[in-house]
Write a structure and sequence with these properties.
disordered C terminus, 3 domains, Clc chloride channel, mainly alpha, disordered N terminus, CBS domain, membrane, transport, 5% strand, voltage-gated chloride channel activity, CBS_dom_sf
C-alpha cells in the first residue's frame, strides 16, 4: 500500500544507502557491524563500539579455525599488526612535525633581530657555525647581520622597531591563517583532545586542515614573542597525525572506541617530542587526557612515544644531540635542609596556579562578552604589539622562553658569562654577590610580573597557544630568586647549626638552578594539577634521578594547596567554560538521587509485538532520537535499538522483497524475537533480533547520582534507563547528567544546548 510522502522520502534515502552497499542479506550478513554515523557534537556509544569489535574478532577467529589456510592466517596477522603499524607511523610523523616546528621557531625568532647574509634560511647559530671554522662565535660572526648597531642610539631604535614589527607581523599571519582556513587550530588543544578522548565527537578538530595550519602557525605564534608555548599544541598536532593515519585502516576508521586508543598513544607521542620525555608522555596520556586506557594501549603508547623521541632525535633540531632546548645535567647533590625551601616553592606554585586559573577564566569570560571575542584579529595584533613593546627593554623578557628556561636552569661555574652567576670569588670581597647578580635579580622580578600578567590575557587567543612553557618560566624565575635568597641567608648566618657542617660558603652548597627547576615543576603542577607525570617529565628533562624527591615534594605541596581552593586545573576549567560534555572524576554528588534529575519523562518507544515497517518509518520520520527502547504492552523494558540499526534493518528487509526501487511500498512485520514465525501471504517478516541490545543498563529512581556517574564513566554508557517497579519510566543520557551537574554547581539554567 502507499504511505505518506515523508515516509516515501525516508524510505528512498534508506534504499539509496542500501544500494550503495550492493544490498544486504538480512539473515546472514546484517549484524549491525557497519560504521555508526554519529552527529557532530554528539557522544559515542562505547558499549556498542566495543561490542561490535568483539563480535568481529570472534567471527574472524571462528573463520580462521574452520578454514585454516594461508589467506586467513595473513589476514588475521595483518589485523593484529595494524595497531602497531599505526603507532609507528604516528611516532615518525609526530617527531618530524616537532622537528620542523623547532627549527622554524628558532629561525623566525632570530629573524626578528637580523639575518644571515647570502643564506636567509639559516638561523644565527647555523649562520655563525658556517662562518667560523673552529666553532660558534656569535660576537665575531661576520655572516650574521643585525638590523642595527646595538651600540648606537639610532641602531638601538631600529632594532626595537624591527623587533616589534616582525613580532606583530608573525602574529598577524598566524591569526589570519587560523581564522580563514582552520578555526580549530587555535588554543592549546588539550581541553578539546581530553573531551574527544572521553567519547565526544568534534568533526574537523583533528582534520588534515587543522594539522597543516597548526603546524605552520605554531612557529609564527611562538616567534612573535607572545607569552605562550608550543608544547601543549604539539599534543594536538600528534593527535591530528594519529587521526589521519588511522583513516587508512577500516578497523579504526569505522570504530570510534578503537580510534580513541590510537589517539591516546598520539597524545603520549606529543608530550614525548615536546619535552623529550617518552615515559612522561605515556604517564601524561594516562593521568591527564585518556578516558579509556586498557593495557594494550599502554604498551602501544609507550612504543609510539619511543618512536617519536627517536624520530626527533634523528632530526636533531637544536644541534646539541638533545630533544629539548633546556636540557641540563647536574651532579651536585641537594641537602636535607633544602627540602624546606622546596616546600615553599611548592606552596607558591599552588597559590600561583589558583590565582592564574581564576584570572584567566575571568578574562576569557570577559573576552566572550566583549568586542575582543568578535574581533580576534584585532585582539591578537594589539596583544602582539603590546607584548613586544613591554618585552624588549628587559633582556629576560626579550629572549625566547625556551632560552630563558635554559638560562635559569643552568648550573653556575667559575668564570661564567651568565649575569646570574656573576659571583665575586676574590678573597678580599665582603660578599660573594656582585652588582651584576643584584641587577639581574631585579630584572627577573620585573620579568616575572610582566610575563605572569601577559600569560593571563594571552592564553585563549585565536592562535596556537600552549601553557606549559609560560607556567614553567614563571616558576623557574621564582625558583631562581628563592635560590639566590637562600644563598644570601646562608651568607648572613654562616654559623647556623642547620647548615654549618655542609656549607663552606653559599655557592658551594646551594645551586639556584636546581631551585629554578623545582619552581618550574611547582608552577606547572599548580596550573595543570599534574603530579606523577610531571615529576617523571622533569627528571627526564634534567637527566638525573637524584632530584626526584625535590620534584615530588614541590609537586605534592603545589597539588595540595591547589586542591584546597579548587580541584579543577586550567584545562578542566576551560572544558567547563566552553561547556564541553566531559564527566570529571572529581565531581561529588553523594547526596543526590536519580529522581532529582527529572520527575516526568516523555518517551518514544517501540512495542515489542505488532511493529510494522510503516509504523516504524513514521516514527523515524517524526522523531530525531538516536535510539528507541523496545517495551511490552505492560511497559516493561525488553531491549534497545539504535536509530542507525533500525534504518539499516528496514532497508535490508525491503531488499529481500524487491530490488526495484520503483516498487510499491509493502508493509512488513518487524520481529524482535529469536524465533522465526511462518511466512504468511508471501511476505517475509523483518527479524532484527541480531542487532538489538537485550541487556540495556537500567537503574531505579532511588539510585544515587554518584553511582550513575561512575556507570557512565566506567561502563561507557550513552544512556541508562530508569525503572519503577519493573516499568520503564524514563532515561538519562550523558548530557542530561552533565546538565544537572552544571546547574547544581552554578545554580542557574545555563545549559549545554549547543551540543544537543
Amino acid at each position: 500500500m502507499k504511505i505518506k510522502t515523508k515516509q516515501n522520502h525516508f524510505f528512498g534515502a534508506l534504499k539509496a544507502r542500501t544500494e550503495a552497499k550492493g544490498g544486504i542479506t538480512l539473515e546472514d550478513d546484517f549484524t549491525g557491524e557497519t560504521k555508526f554515523h554519529y552527529k557532530d557534537f554528539g557522544s559515542i556509544d562505547w558499549y556498542r563500539e566495543l561490542a561490535v569489535d568483539q563480535r568481529k574478532r570472534a567471527r574472524e577467529k571462528e573463520k580462521a579455525e574452520n578454514s585454516p589456510n594461508i589467506v586467513n592466517y595473513v589476514r588475521s596477522l595483518a589485523d593484529a599488526a595494524s595497531g602497531w603499524i599505526i603507532v609507528t607511523v604516528i611516532g615518525l610523523l609526530a617527531g618530524f612535525a616537532a622537528g620542523v616546528i623547532d627549527i622554524a621557531t628558532k629561525w623566525l625568532s632570530d629573524l626578528k633581530s637580523g639575518y644571515c647574509r647570502g643564506h636567509l634560511y639559516l638561523n644565527q647559530e647555523q649562520c655563525c657555525w658556517s662562518d667560523n671554522l673552529h666553532g660558534i662565535d656569535e660576537d665575531n660572526c661576520t655572516a650574521w647581520r643585525d638590523y642595527g648597531n646595538p651600540n648606537s642610539y639610532g641602531g638601538h631604535v631600529l632594532l626595537f622597531i624591527m623587533y616589534c614589527l616582525m613580532g606583530t607581523l608573525f602574529a598577524t599571519i598566524a591569526v589570519i591563517l587560523v581564522k580563514m582556513i582552520a578555526p580549530y587550530a587555535c588554543g592549546s588543544g588539550i581541553p578539546e583532545v581530553k573531551t574527544i578522548l572521553s567519547g565526544f565527537i568534534m568533526k574537523g578538530y583533528l582534520g588534515f586542515g587543522t594539522l597543516l595550519v597548526k603546524t605552520l602557525t605554531m612557529p609564527l605564534a611562538v616567534s612573535a614573542g607572545l607569552m605562550l608555548g608550543k608544547e601543549g599544541p604539539l599534543v594536538h598536532v600528534a593527535c591530528c597525525c594519529g587521526h589521519a593515519v588511522s583513516q587508512f585502516f577500516p578497523k579504526y576508521r569505522n570504530n570510534q572506541a578503537k580510534l580513541r586508543e590510537m589517539l591516546s598513544a598520539s597524545a603520549a607521542a606529543g608530550v614525548s617530542v615536546a619535552f623529550g620525555a617518552p615515559i612522561g608522555g605515556v604517564l601524561f596520556s594516562l593521568e591527564e587526557v585518556s578516558y579509556y586506557f586498557p593495557l594494550k594501549t599502554l604498551w602501544r603508547s609507550f612504543f609510539c612515544a619511543l618512536i617519536a623521541a627517536f624520530s626527533l632525535r634523528a632530526m636533531n633540531p637544536f644541534g646539541n644531540q638533545h630533544l629539548v632546548l633546556f636540557y641540563v645535567e647536574y651532579d651536585k647533590p641537594y641537602h636535607l635542609f633544602e627540602l624546606f625551601p622546596f616546600i615553599i616553592l611548592g606552596i607558591l606554585g599552588g597559590l600561583y596556579g589558583i590565582l592564574f586559573i581564576h584570572m584567566n577564566l575571568s578574562w576569557c569570560r570577559f573576552r566572550k562578552r566583549s568586542l575582543l571575542g568578535q574581533h580576534p584579529l584585532l585582539e591578537v595584533v594589539i596583544l602582539a604589539l603590546g607584548t613586544s613593546i613591554l618585552a624588549y627593554p628587559n633582556p629576560y623578557t626579550r629572549i625566547q622562553s625556551g632560552h630563558l628556561i635554559r638560562l635559569l636552569f643552568k648550573e653556575c661555574k667559575r668564570y661564567d658569562d651568565n649575569p646570574l652567576c656573576d659571583y665575586d670569588y676574590s678573597k678580599n670581597a665582603t660578599t660573594v654577590f656582585s652588582d651584576g647578580i643584584t641587577q639581574a635579580s631585579w630584572q627577573l622580578i620585573l620579568a616575572l610580573i610582566v610575563k605572569s600578567a601577559l600569560t593571563v590575557i594571552t592564553f585563549g587567543i585565536k592562535v596556537p597557544a600552549g601553557l606549559f612553557i609560560p607556567s614553567m618560566v614563571t616558576g623557574a624565575i621564582t625558583g631562581r630568586l628563592i635560590g639566590i635568597m637562600t644563598q644570601k641567608i646562608i651568607e648572613a648566618f654562616p654559623s647556623s647549626p642547620i647548615w654549618e657542617g655542609v656549607c663552606a660558603d653559599p655557592t658551594s652548597c646551594i645551586e639556584p638552578g636546581l631551585y629554578s627547576m623545582v619552581g618550574a615543576a611547582a608552577a606547572l603542577g599548580g596550573v595543570t594539577r599534574m603530579t606523577v607525570s610531571l615529576v617523571v617529565i622533569m627528571f627526564e628533562v634534567t637527566g638525573g634521578l637524584q632530584y626526584i624527591v625535590p620534584f615530588m615534594v614541590a609537586t605534592m605541596a603545589s597539588k595540595w594547596i591547589g586542591d584546597a581552593f579548587g580541584k579543577d586545573g586550567i584545562y578542566d576549567g576551560h572544558i567547563t567554560l566552553n561547556e564541553y560534555p566531559y564527566l570529571d572524576v572529581k565531581i561529588d554528588m553523594q547526596q543526590q538521587k536519580v529522581r532529582s534529575i527529572a520527575n516526568n519523562w516523555t518517551l518514544t518507544s517501540i512495542p515489542f509485538q505488532g511493529s510494522t515497517t510503516e509504523k516504524l518509518c513514521t516514527m523515524l520520520a517524526d522523531h530525531p532520537y538516536s535510539g528507541f527502547p523496545i517495551v511490552t504492552t505492560q511497559g516493561r523494558l525488553v531491549a534497545f535499538i539504535t536509530r542507525e540499526d533500525l534504518h539499516e534493518g528496514i532497508a535490508a528487509g525491503r531488499m529481500l522483497i524487491s530490488d526495484d526501487p520503483n516498487d510499491e511500498f509493502i508493509d512488513q512485520t518487524v520481529l524482535f524475537t529469536m524465533s522465526t514465525p511462518l511466512v504468511s501471504a508471501g511476505r517475509v517478516p523483518i527479524r532484527l533480533n541480531n542487532v538489538i541490545d537485550y541487556s540495556p543498563v537500567t537503574i531505579s529512581e532511588q539510585t544515587p547520582i554518584a553511582l550513575v556517574l561512575e556507570m557512565f564513566r566506567k561502563l561507557g554508557c550513552r544512556q541508562v534507563f530508569v525503572i519503577r517497579q519493573g516499568e520503564l519510566v524514563g532515561l538519562i543520557t550523558k548530557k542530561d547528567l552533565l546538565q544537572f551537574i552544571y546547574e547544581t554547581r552554578n545554580n542557574d539554567q545555563t545549559s549545554y544546548s549547543q551540543f544537543k
